[in-house]
Amino acid sequence: MSVNAVNALRACGWMMATAESCTGGLIAGAVTDIAGSSAVFDRGFITYSNAAKTQMLGVPMELIEAHGAVSEAVAEAMAQGALARSEAQVAVAVTGIAGPGGSEHKPEGRVCFGVATGTQVHVETVEFGALGRAQVRARTVAHALALVEEAARAAPNVQA
How far apart (Å, rounded) are the C-alpha atoms in residues 48 and 150? Predict the structure, then answer.
């Protein structure tokens, strides 16, 4: 999965940035495990706390208070903040409940994703279920990289 994302980014000449909460840097780690990833990886923001989301990515605290840290609104703001604070052409953000635990309103395994490019932002929520912390985080990394690959393959300068 990481190789596919790296190859897609290389093909369109894009760099990526990450804004990670529940994965704590695992997406950046997966990408930088690939030899030659320096050509496509600009930087990563690990914003586990709400204060970090606000300070590092510019996510308004009012937005977090209104929607909760695990929300599509916050994932979108995280992705836009990472894109604006980097040299990247695509940024992926994740915020979720890896577990154990959760609540009636935000169950374990819920992860909100945001992908921002210069022209659009895509957000979605995936319910992975109560698979355990390691599995939720692993599936979050794989899904985030699939979203980055998809965005890169849709880039206007990609050769078919």
Answer: 26
